[in-house]
Write a structure and sequence with these properties.
The protein is α/β, with parallel strands linked by helices. The chain contains 21 helices and 13 strands. The radius of gyration is 49 Å and the shape is rod-shaped.
């Protein structure tokens, strides 16, 4: 138990990932909320949205050419397919298509018409795919076809306009040349000079070249392209179906839930795993107590046959017994970080019973002098009148005359020094009688267990650490913060003690804790049998776990041990006599 705590850096990465994943799964509510949000969103998209239909047509773009069958003729000569895609989604195409659709009875604005159009170009091709999405199949088909034909019409018009412009330019160049040729022809008739004849011949050559270019332009094939695939009315709506949407929504919702769990995990100050608890406290984990329904009603698990909780307490007691640090002093302080003291109370009583079962002379000291309740709870489980320290008689000289033997059926007995309400708690805890009682742990075969209030709520536990030294912290991981454990380690270390380990306690439910608090405030002089009757009348659970008539049920037997009673040695003697 005193071996050094292995650091997280020494853990293999898969183990850390598994631990983190388990921590995320602890926030099941956030995961469920995320999945529900994803499913609701996908269901809203699948059921609340309108069905849409997409029709697709393909247009093959080509350039104007004089002889498409000539050798070396290329259809992509001078075509920039990126510019053609921009032309296909331009307002000019939308205007032409809108006019065509109006004639067919589908009146639509240009902006609205172009909002449903998507033009793509497959790689390494001169093909434009016109995909149009509309509310009905026929509307999608008609609009896709109108836009594709409008694009071809716009491109044809632009090609023909370019040819006409070039022809007009050549004609503008040809007119002065023709006029000059006619003048030279008149001069040649009159004078017949060689220079006039040569100039006229040159003009004829230039005029012939321009006429040839005009003829070539007029002979160009201005077909802008072909509608390779006419749009057809789709038979199924576009988008994912409801089952696929629900599946995607569940996946997205799970991812959202994991994200929320991760954020919650990052900002969660509570201890998230036993590994983190061990690292924060700087001490090993002694044991994790299982949950038992019977344990929620009974304070003492030792002596109850077939109890897994009792076996775990026995395992912890054996582990402490063989620890070298504890074996030297045999003094143990049991406390909790903060909150109620029920978990530490159950651990202290059961460890005392376990050590008594091992034949040790056990002395259990209740150092909770602010809200002492251990004597009343043990007396409530015993038939007949309670011991003298449970009769309500005030004793301001604690711990004098506060001893009583507690007999655990079938296990042994231990001596209890019950707590008393004291005006000056620090003075009482540091008094000489308390020091003498704690020193009894130095006797051979003796064990002293001190039940202290929460270490972060009061300084009572710190006042005892210098004489007890060995500390066991009992806690519920989800109810303690990492900073609290680090502070406990620093406080106990500064006071001269050491943390032997931590014990994870399942705790009790709220109704059981409420019943125990009610039992603690009942009149101390009330007989145990009457208290059981009151519990049945009030509908409260019995801490001893017994039902029926208390006179017919075996329970704890609290034997009065006053000043002349069995004293400290009664535990071993009682156990031996019973055996």
């Amino acid at each position: 138990m005193t071996h050094p705590i292995r650091a997280l850096d020494d853990q293999d990465e898969p183990a850390l990932l598994r631990d983190q994943f388990r921590q995320l799964l602890r926030y099941r509510a956030l995961l469920v909320i995320g999945v529900l949000v994803g499913l609701l969103g996908s269901a809203w998209l699948g059921l609340g949205g309108e069905d849409t239909y997409a029709a697709t047509g393909e247009v093959s773009v080509r350039s104007a050419t004089s002889d498409p069958f000539a050798a070396g003729a290329s259809a992509d000569k001078g075509i920039n397919i990126g510019s053609e895609r921009q032309t296909a989604v331009s307002d000019a195409v939308g205007t032409v298509a809108s006019g065509t659709l109006t004639k067919l009875g589908d009146t639509v604005e240009v902006g609205e018409l172009l909002s449903g159009l998507q033009v793509t170009n497959p790689p390494n091709t001169l093909v434009l795919k016109f995909s149009y999405t509309a509310r009905t199949p026929e509307q999608a088909r008609a609009r896709a076809e109108a836009l594709a034909e409008a694009y071809l019409e716009i491109r044809r018009e632009r090609t023909e306009d370019s040819i006409d412009n070039m022809i007009d330019g050549y004609r503008a160049q040809l007119k002065p040349l023709t006029e000059q040729r006619d003048r030279l022809a008149a001069q040649e008739t009159g004078t017949g000079g060689d220079d006039v004849t040569s100039a006229r011949a040159n003009l004829i050559v230039a005029i012939s070249a321009l006429n040839q270019k005009i003829s070539e332009l007029r002979a160009l094939d201005t077909t802008p392209g072909y509608l390779n695939k006419k749009p057809v009315a789709p038979t199924h709506p576009t988008g994912a179906g409801l089952p696929l949407l629900l599946g995607l929504g569940a996946v997205v919702g799970l991812a959202l839930g994991l994200l929320m769990s991760w954020v919650r995990l990052v900002f969660d100050p509570a201890v998230r795993s036993t590994r983190e608890l061990v690292r924060s406290l700087g001490a090993p984990l002694l044991g994790t107590l299982p949950r038992e329904r019977a344990a929620a009603r009974a304070l003492l698990a030792i002596g109850r046959p077939g109890s897994r909780l009792a076996e775990e307490y026995r395992a912890v007691a054996f582990r402490l017994a063989y620890d070298t640090s504890f074996a030297e002093r045999r003094r143990l302080l049991v406390t909790t970080p903060r909150g109620d003291n029920d978990t530490a109370k159950a651990a202290a009583v059961n460890l005392a019973a376990a050590f008594a079962e091992m034949g040790r002379d056990v002395l259990l000291v209740e150092a909770d002098l602010r809200t002492p309740s251990l004597a009343g709870e043990l007396a409530a489980a015993a038939p007949g009148p309670g011991p003298r320290w449970a009769t309500g008689q005030e004793n301001h000289n604690w711990p004098a005359d506060s001893r009583a033997n507690v007999d655990v059926p079938g296990s042994g007995a231990f001596t209890l020094v019950a707590g008393r309400r004291t005006d000056n708690v620090p003075r009482a805890l540091t008094s000489t009688p308390v020091t003498r009682i704690l020193a009894e742990g130095g006797r051979p075969g003796a064990v002293v267990i001190v039940l202290a209030p929460p270490v972060l709520s009061y300084a009572d536990a710190v006042a005892l650490v210098d004489r007890v030294e060995d500390v066991v912290v009992v806690c519920r991981p989800r109810e303690v913060h990492r900073s609290d454990l680090e502070r406990i380690r620093e406080i106990i270390g500064a006071a001269g003690g050491s943390v032997l380990g931590t014990l994870l306690h399942p705790g009790y439910g709220r109704p059981v804790r409420r019943a125990r608090r009610k039992a603690a405030v009942r009149p101390a002089g009330q007989p145990a049998g009457q208290e059981h009757a009151d519990r049945r009348r009030y509908g409260e659970p019995d801490p001893s776990g017994r039902t029926g008539d208390p006179a017919e049920t075996m329970g704890l037997r609290a034997l009065d041990g006053g000043p002349g009673g069995p004293g400290r040695g009664g535990g071993r003697n009682s156990a031996a006599g019973r055996r």
